[in-house]
Amino acid sequence: MAITTTVGNRSQRVSNFENEGLVELGLTTQGIICNGNMKSWQFNRKFLTHSIMSPNFLKDFVQETQSLFNEMGNYWSNLGTDFQIDLAQWMYRFTTDTMLKSTTGKPFYSVLSYYNTLAPTKIKVPGLMTIEPEEFLALITNWLTMVMYFLFFSNLIRHYIPGFRQFTQKLLAKNEQLDEKVLTIIEERRKDIESSSETPLQNDILTSLLIANTSRDTNSSSNDEALKPLTNNEIRQIMLDVFIAGIDTVFQLSREDVIGGLKFKPGTMFCANQQGIHRSTQYWKDPEKFIPERFVKGSEFEAKNLEKNAYNPFGGGLRLCPGRHVAMAELKVLIVLLFGKYDVQLANPKSPLKYSLVALNQCNELKVLIRPKTN
Ligand code: HEM
């Protein structure tokens, strides 16, 4: 993985896309994931990192993950004791609920709403919801489709070719609905904070972003220009980034460079082929086999003396995933609880995994047989 470059170093890897579709969506100057404006990216990323790296946030997040898992376990036992579930669908809702709760501070109930589609007797959703879960999930999917579509189809196709033009309008209209819903959540929480003297305030991301650089911020930073509070629109884009959480390890050359012996012009875009690296026999023994023990220290399958960057799920450098600790905390809690409490077997061990690529690889269906452990 050591590719020689004449001027390249990590500091070159600062900007993301300068794609005209993303420019039209306003994404290259907002939020974090696609933001290519160094100053605004740094400003936004600083607040998000500050919030999600705090020990209190992580502590609450782990507790929330545990309590939602127990709730999901109750739903499963209502459905039977030895039965088949689509784990991909449950997990999609589960991670949505944990992320939405830790982002907005309010419960989201998409696990419950999914249970209600399967159970003969429905459970009433407690409390009032600003957003109906399935509708919100559809709007998030629309956002992802819209971004990929704007990324790959030219302005001419998007706005002038019949059929495509209507599709573009539909995507944008739904995106406006998503924006409105997220702004409503922000305004509601802003009012809650202003009208209460609640201390200490909740540890969710929205609260941290709303109070940053205000008199309620106990960690106010004294350095630099980032002394102004964030606007509703700035907060909206950060929250959307967290709901979607980017995984594009992309970088653009700011000046001419020779990489791996070849000369590249400024502006050339590079995208690391992580999937290729993670499945390369050059770095991994039997890369196509599912051998989790390769990550266990001391195991006979342990992958030893790995080359730098042979395992790089969260990217690297300046744009390294800021949510990596949150993601790992959730995965560890989930794995321990799921396999500690249940016997889980693939319902159809011979059938291939059903997955699709919409910006990210996502598993669409994973039927498993699940039975509570007795001891
Ligand atoms: C297993 C789960 C996750 C994986 C595999 C993952 C992976 C990645 C990768 C590969 C990148 C691109 C890094 C680069 O360009 O070098 C990234 C960026 C990002 N991720 Fe994650 N991520 C995960 C979860 C999360 C979570 C839970 C959050 C939020 C709490 C998050 C927020 C972000 C953001 C905001 C960026 C953009 C960073 C920037 O451009 O400065 N990710 N992620």
UniProtKB/TrEMBL annotation:
The keyword RNA-binding does not apply. The chain crosses the membrane at residues 136-157. InterPro entries: Cyt_P450 (IPR001128), Cyt_P450_CS (IPR017972), Cyt_P450_E_grp-IV (IPR002403), Cyt_P450_sf (IPR036396), Cytochrome_P450_71 (IPR050193). It is a single-pass membrane protein. One of its GO terms (molecular function) is heme binding. Keywords: Heme, Iron, Membrane, Metal-binding, Monooxygenase, Oxidoreductase, Transmembrane, Transmembrane helix. It is found in: Membrane. CDD domains: cytochrome_P450 (cd00302). GO terms for cellular component: membrane. Its cofactor is heme. Signal peptide: none annotated. The keyword Mitochondrion does not apply. Belongs to the cytochrome P450 family. This is 5700_t:CDS:1. It comes from Ambispora gerdemannii.
